[in-house]
From TrEMBL:
UniProt-recorded name of the protein: Endogenous inhibitor of DNA gyrase (YacG/DUF329 family)
Amino acid sequence: MTSFPSAARKAGDPRVTVDNRILALRESVARFCPYGFRATWHHVLVNARVPRQLTDDPDSLCRAAAELVEARQVWMTYRDAFADRRRREKALGRRDPVFADRWYSWGNRLAYCPNPTVHPRERLVVVVQRVMEAYLSGRDVSVSCPACGSTRPDATPCPRCGVDTQWLSGRPVTVYRWRRIWQAV
Ligand SMILES: [Zn+2]
């Protein structure tokens, strides 16, 4: 398995064939996908204007990889700061993270977009920064979208930007669905 840094480096390397570079870009997205894999993949292809025929614009792969690298760097800074804080809190006897810290258990999927073509369109780093600030502020992100700030009905993807935070709100949606599937068998 390739690490994110080496996959992203390969995706942006003009000495590598475009076929291998697009595969490396896919690997990079698999390792860092704030909207989930499919929506993040769609986001980087659209934002970097990656053409259907890769040889028409090989530099687009550099732009796509650079957007991912930049956003991941910011996310890692937040993640590391959070890990440090949790270590200090545990040392002081606070074992359970508070509600506002739930984003951490999502791994690198910070702002899940169930529809792969409906996601924020700004540069990824801007969105990552905004959602992280929203999570760390402790505000209720099931009412006010952490990515665009619009208010929306509870437990639905944001109609403006497509981000869905219902898992973050603590509702056991997956468990509920799984229970129904299980009982139907
Ligand atoms: Zn939104």
